[in-house]
Design goal:
single chain, 65 residues, 0% strand
Length: 65
């Protein structure tokens, strides 16, 4: 019975796509930022600052939990 429950649980996880859209939008925003940095060198430093702040926020959130 436990084996059947595990199999059902695994199938639920595989079929779950709730966070997929958010990840896709985040990837697209990242690609646009990198492209803007490549085209406009002055923007590249500001993009680097933004990514550093995001990284710092994610790191502090991960260590807090």
């Amino acid at each position: 019975m436990k084996k059947l429950k595990n199999m059902v649980w695994n199938l639920r996880i595989i079929k779950d796509t709730k966070g997929q859209d958010l990840i896709e939008y985040a990837l697209m925003a990242g690609f646009v930022a990198v492209a803007a940095g490549a085209i406009m060198p002055g923007v590249a430093t500001q993009i680097g600052v933004i990514f550093s702040r995001v990284t710092l926020s994610l790191t502090s959130a991960a260590t807090a939990s």
